[in-house]
Amino acid sequence: MTQTYKVDFSDVRWGSVEWTNLCTLYLRAYESHSPAPILGDHAAADAVDRIEYDWARMRRAMRPGSNQYMVTMRAKQLDDWSADFLRRHPDAVVLHLGCGMDTRAFRLPLPAGTIIYELDDQAVLAGKQAILDREHATPRCIRRPVAADLAQAQWPVALAAAGFNPGAPAAFVAEGLTYYLPEQADALLLDRAASIATPGSRLGVDMVSADYLTNPGVAPYLELAASRGDRWQFGSNDPGGFLAAHGWQADITTCSPWPAASADGHHQESPTT
Ligand SMILES: C[S@@+](CC[C@H](N)C(=O)[O-])C[C@H]1O[C@@H](n2cnc3c(N)ncnc32)[C@H](O)[C@@H]1O
């Protein structure tokens, strides 16, 4: 294929938050070529094929032979959790907070009428759309991108403008997002999500511990990442307490496996990594 077949992402700054989207996309794509994939995200592989980028450098940096597993196991857990929720609540919607380049709407076998709202920064969504348009990709459900700043209080307004019905149960998914926001913004995000969540809605979210962010062994990596624009800002040693303070009853899992579902009310699961 010639380069004109691809969407040019070569100006995405190495180490930036936008770059982290390419990292997770690349790792999911890589894993899809495994003989026995965990996630099998062929839509990610298709997207990588359509993106002009220095993937050889990415491969050297990401060391996908080992790093593919963390990203794909996390995505698989959230896929299974979302699919299970949709099985029990066929009228539910999915709210993907900080969706980035994730292809959940293309890989999950959801009922065709299911709506997935994908929320992220406008530029991120525009880049994603350019690739999907180039691929003529068709989601397996109804996909509605919503450009919004999730660190601000108004994002539910943009969601409502995109047709979100607050009466339906919702599966909120926040994957790889919370540590990019400062504590106050995470608190606001959870508050705002709880405010539009009808009883029975749930949230799947991953967090890091505060200890991880202050670990001297990790400091050089975090400082280097921050200098490039990829700043990890918040972690909690008490994710259950933090989430409870912001409207969500938590079941905590450290890394994996994913916990069993609870019966009623707001419920959210938070593996610390
Ligand atoms: C590490 S990426 C993870 C993307 C995706 N969930 C995945 O697992 O591949 C973090 C995402 O959060 C988004 N994000 C960070 N801060 C945001 C904000 N204030 N408003 C909207 N999106 C934000 C970034 O644009 C990026 O797409």
Question: How would you describe what is shown here?
Answer:
The chain has 273 residues and is of the alpha/beta class. The protein folds into two domains: 3-68, no CATH class; 85-269, Rossmann fold, CATH 3.40.50.150. It is 42% helix and 13% strand. It has eleven helices and nine strands. It has helices at residues 17-32, 42-49, 55-62, 64-88, 104-107, 122-135, 155-161, 183-196, 210-214, 219-227, 239-244; strands at residues 7-8, 51-52, 93-97, 115-120, 142-147, 170-174, 202-205, 250-251, 267-269. A seven-stranded parallel beta sheet has the order 5-4-3-6-7-9-8, sandwiched between helices. α6 (122-135) links the parallel β4 (115-120) and β5. α1 (17-32) crosses α2. The longest helix is centred in the first third of the chain and has 25 residues, at 64-88. The model is unreliable at 256-273 (pLDDT under 50). S-adenosylmethionine binds next to α1. Residues 17, 20-21, 24, 98-102, 120-121, 124, 149-151, 175-177, 180-181 line the site of S-adenosylmethionine.
Name the beta content range. Answer: 5-15%
**Computed structural class:** alpha/beta
Tell me the radius of gyration. 18 Å
Mind telling me which CATH architecture of the largest domain this is?
Answer: 3-Layer(aba) Sandwich
Bound molecules: S-adenosylmethionine
Order of helices and strands: EHHEHHEHEHEHEHEHHHEE
The CATH homologous superfamily name of the largest domain equals Vaccinia Virus protein VP39
What overall geometry do the principal axes of the alpha carbons give? Answer: globular
Instruction: State the end-to-end CA separation.
Output: 39 Å
**Mean pLDDT across every amino acid position:** 90
Query: How many structural domains are formed by the residues?
Result: 2
Number of strands: 9
Can you summarize the main beta sheet?
Answer: 7 strands, parallel
CATH class of the largest domain: Alpha Beta
